[in-house]
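Minutes, project huddle
Topic: does the predicted pose make sense with iron/sulfur cluster bound?
PN asked that the exact inputs be recorded in the minutes so nobody has to dig through chat later. Recorded below.
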Amino acid sequence: MSPKASIQAEALALGFDAIRFTEAVLPEATRTRLDAFLESGAHGGMGWMETRREQRAQPRALWPEAVSVIALGLNYGPDYDPLASLEQRDRATISAYAQGRDYHDVVKKRLKALGQWMARHFKGSALKVFVDTAPVMEKPLAAQAGLGWQGKHTNLVSRSHGSWLFLGEIYTTLALEPDAPESDHCGSCRACLDACPTAAFPAPYRLDARRCISYLTIEHHGPIPHEFRRAMGNRIYGCDDCLAVCPWNKFAQASAEMQFAPRGEVAPKLAELALLDDAAFRARFAGSPIKRIGRNRFIRNVLIAIGNSGDTALLPAARALCEDADPAVADAAAWAMEQLTA
Ligand code: B12
Ligand code: SF4
Ligand code: SF4
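Predicted holo structure (tokens), as shared on screen:
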């Protein structure tokens, strides 16, 4: 078996759903687009995107010895309609990626296992593994390797898994023959652009993160800007609208990975979530990606959903948080009361 074929076989045996290979070089156009994104301020408060920009745009600026990149995907396709709970106004919509165990842990563990296997089989080679948090442009690398293409919603779309792939990479000193990139199969479709509740796409293939509900609910600190509060509806963690409407999802299979299965109710009641104090929040979301936003940002989001619920039975829950020690929680509680009593 060739080195590529044996790595591929081991990756699939470890539970990865997709694997392709590319050179550890990204074209100049990727850097130019990253620069344009950052210069326009589209990254909002994600200041960490500016630091180590060179390394993000070019694999060898991060690690000069890197020769090849192995792009890997793990399917997290939901076995339910991720948009169904948007109409259940007394309940919370939590994006599909956050329903189960934190993918950072799951993907990292598998990348490390594959890395250890490679270290045993290709003596003298070196490697580094990445998922999400490192200064790595995961989507352009995966697209260049042919795992899929960057759709108009900017995420990687795969012909076999639709929009539901987590990405991870291995940078290696091994010279592995690059695979051909996938071509763009969006055509004249613009379903994702039209589905966005906050008009976060200034143009196809470009996202203004400051307007994106995923950014607002997960990355944004402090009060949610007023112009987006109504549009958030009951989305309290992330957003799946642009992903879920993609016609390529019809080829996707539900994930067989038990660790990504919902850990509790897919759409929990807002009344129940609003009661969580710091300790209860940590206990409930241990091992989930939700834990990283902390109790205050989480409750802030729950209160915006309560304000949008139209359900006056939730007034006491909002009232109880009006004096909260966190100013963004108190602000969202006051807004929710205003909406429910208007
Ligand atoms: C920052 C970030 C965010 C930010 C900004 C998102 C963004 N689109 O940049 C926020 C918080 C909003 C976010 C949200 C989400 N994220 Co996120 N995020 C990242 C992160 C850390 C970096 C992305 C990045 O580099 N952005 C900078 C921009 C400039 O790069 P880009 O998106 O590739 O932009 C390209 C296009 O705009 C294109 N382009 C520009 N102009 C033009 C013109 C033409 C003609 C063409 C063809 C292309 C083109 O070129 C740019 C450079 O390649 C990655 C992990 C990583 N390290 O890569 C995860 C990652 C992208 N996120 C992921 C996920 C799952 C999500 C959410 C679905 C989560 C959710 N359900 O709420 C949403 C999706 C929102 C969306 N529509 O993008 C996954 C995506 C997996 C996939 N299949 O693609 C990643 C890869 C994490 C992972 N390891 O799995 N995320
Ligand atoms: S994740 Fe939601 S808010 Fe963000 S771009 Fe997609 S549809 Fe718009
Ligand atoms: S919804 Fe349409 S335009 Fe958007 S990524 Fe999918 S195929 Fe492309």
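Observations noted during the meeting:
- The chain has two domains: 3-80+100-172, 191-341.
- The chain is about 35% helix and 10% strand.
No decisions taken; revisit at the next huddle.
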